[in-house]
Amino acid sequence: MVNADDFGFTRDVNAGIVEAHRHGILTATTLMANGQAFDDAVRLARETPTLDVGCHLVLVSGCSLLDPDRAFPLTVGELLKAVTLGRLRPYDELRAQIRRIVDAGIRPTHLDTHKHTHLFPPVLDAVARLAEEFGIHWVRRPFDLPITAAGVPWSKRMVSRGLQVVRRRFHRVLERHGCRTTDYFAGFQITGRFNAADVAALIRSLPDGSTEFMTHPGYHGPELEAARTRLKASRAAELAALTSAQTREALDESGVELTRYSKL
Question: Taking the domain 2-263, which CATH number applies?
Fold first, then answer.
């Protein structure tokens, strides 16, 4: 499964995601219920029934759906403090987001979180509970495969390795709520840093089993340029990689099958 995060963020991101599906290897996306281009994303989802749509649950950046005048924390550190002190209730906030997506007529196939906040136990508990409540069986496991791509900072590699500490509890909580994950995950370390050659190399090195590849494609238009995100020009580069003939050739040569959560 090749998933695009941030559907609903801006209209130029939405257009890039649909382009990566229609003319590339993208098979799924996750929708931000509090994104400024939510309505545009819903329209595009209805026009693109072969694209799996899940929920990209947000507790960092953006505004609450329960109280639109209240902004979420800007960093993961601020989020952890707000949750610990009881100033933010993950279950209530995330339930409102899933409800908005469902009420828009979308049947979500999978869940993930912005900035991987469901690695934090209180957020994971809320996500797993909501997955069971809404019958959404697939939840992202954000534990990256070893990556050999050039340009990945040492610090990013260390963070990826450090996340393994919470791995056992993570899977235990999901299992208790009847949730499933792919066998493998890729994309954390190379977000905003990959090209077609990197994707082709990743495809050729995939282990047997199911893998989710996290991506952030988009067009670098005026709405994205004005948005608060570090991923701007890199989204266009990711879009080019996902629609490249080199990437498609790697799939054909390696026998890797593209699939969707709704088919598993």
Answer: 3.20.20.370
